[in-house]
């Protein structure tokens, strides 16, 4: 089996990490996240891993080193990973797609869920500083950040789409069906 690189795109708290974890557990996939690069830098310079800090750092890095700087780092990581299935979580820009689609085996997959469901998940998991106390209006405002604006456009370009509005078992069936195609 040739290496398959699944790039996951979706709005905040749509279930991208849930998809990645399922692929890791059931199919021994290995994964990498765009946000991991940013979290590593923020941790190193002793700043909170907040959504605002990650978005600001991403903007600064791309302005200084090019729009595809994070995609280049992720592509290099995917090639090094020793697995037939690699999951790239957090594709957010056209520059990411332009670069990653040149990597053999890359496929874009959209993950989506209704905003109310995503908000509930975001608050419950509290992954980033401030998420647990976020209001629904703040959550909707987060979608207006520069890093989130291209997500709906990229989702339309995805070859495969996963609907994460239902129970986890439904999402797992969709993922199994997707993997069976490879």
UniProtKB/TrEMBL annotation:
**Top-level taxonomic group:** Bacteria
Which Gene3D superfamilies has this protein been placed in? P-loop containing nucleotide triphosphate hydrolases (3.40.50.300)
* Signal peptide (residue range): none
Q: Which Pfam families match?
A: AAA_18 (PF13238)
Q: Which InterPro entries does the entry mention?
A: P-loop_NTPase
Q: What is this protein called?
A: Dephospho-CoA kinase
Q: Which organism is it from?
A: Candidatus Taylorbacteria bacterium RIFCSPLOWO2_12_FULL_44_15c
């Amino acid at each position: 089996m040739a290496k398959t690189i699944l790039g996951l795109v979706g709005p905040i708290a749509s279930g991208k990490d849930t998809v990645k974890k399922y692929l890791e557990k059931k199919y021994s996939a290995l994964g990498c996240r765009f946000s991991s690069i940013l979290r590593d830098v923020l941790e190193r310079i002793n700043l909170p891993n907040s959504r605002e800090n990650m978005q600001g750092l991403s903007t600064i890095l791309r302005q200084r080193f090019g729009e595809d700087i994070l995609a280049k780092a992720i592509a290099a990581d995917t090639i090094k990973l020793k697995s037939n299935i690699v999951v790239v979580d957090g594709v957010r820009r056209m520059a990411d797609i332009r670069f990653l689609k040149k990597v053999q085996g890359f496929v874009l997959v959209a993950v989506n869920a209704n905003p109310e469901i995503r908000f509930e998940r975001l608050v419950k998991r509290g992954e980033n500083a401030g998420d647990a106390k976020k209001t629904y209006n703040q959550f909707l405002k987060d979608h207006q950040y520069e890093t989130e604006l291209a997500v709906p456009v990229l989702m339309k370009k995805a070859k495969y789409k996963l609907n994460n509005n239902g129970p986890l078992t439904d999402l797992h069936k969709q993922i199994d069906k997707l993997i069976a195609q490879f």
